[in-house]
Design goal:
Length: 146
């Protein structure tokens, strides 16, 4: 928590970062990638804010690297500037497995909540995928990796 008078970041609780973490890890399970590409792919999951605030993504990547979940190397191959490529480690695969289990438990809780809510209010979220919904069905399109 910030001391009085200190500037607060845009995500002082770290919630955005914790939400991004498993999605970054699953993308790195495909293979090594660099920051801008990962940010672009997060949009496929519905994380539009990640592309507007890339600093949050890089902060999460730094944190994952400090914890040993990912490692990075610089590459100067190809044209353009050098890029930092991130790669999942064995520890990262274990973290991904734990996060997937956690998300599954959370999904079950959300489904139960929506069932009870629907029973009590007669509102049905089955076919409603509007942007204003609390729960969306954001599933990324499968990409061929080469």
């Amino acid at each position: 928590m910030s001391e009085p008078g200190e500037p607060r970041g845009r995500d002082p609780s770290g919630t955005i970062g914790r939400n991004l973490e498993p999605f970054l890890l699953i993308e790195l399970l495909h293979g090594p990638s660099y920051g801008y590409d990962l940010i672009r792919r997060l949009a496929d999951y519905g994380f539009r804010r990640a592309s507007n605030e890339p600093g949050v993504v890089y902060k999460v990547l730094r944190s994952l690297e400090e914890s040993g979940a990912i490692k990075s190397t610089w590459s100067t191959a190809g044209s353009g500037p050098a890029r930092r490529y991130y790669e999942l480690t064995d520890d990262g695969q274990q973290l991904l497995r734990r996060r997937a289990r956690h998300l599954n438990r959370y999904r079950q809780r959300v489904e139960r909540f929506l069932q009870v809510y629907t029973e009590l209010t007669s509102e049905d979220f089955q076919d409603d995928h509007g942007e204003d919904d609390l729960v969306t069905a954001a599933r990324p399109a499968r990409r061929a990796r080469g």
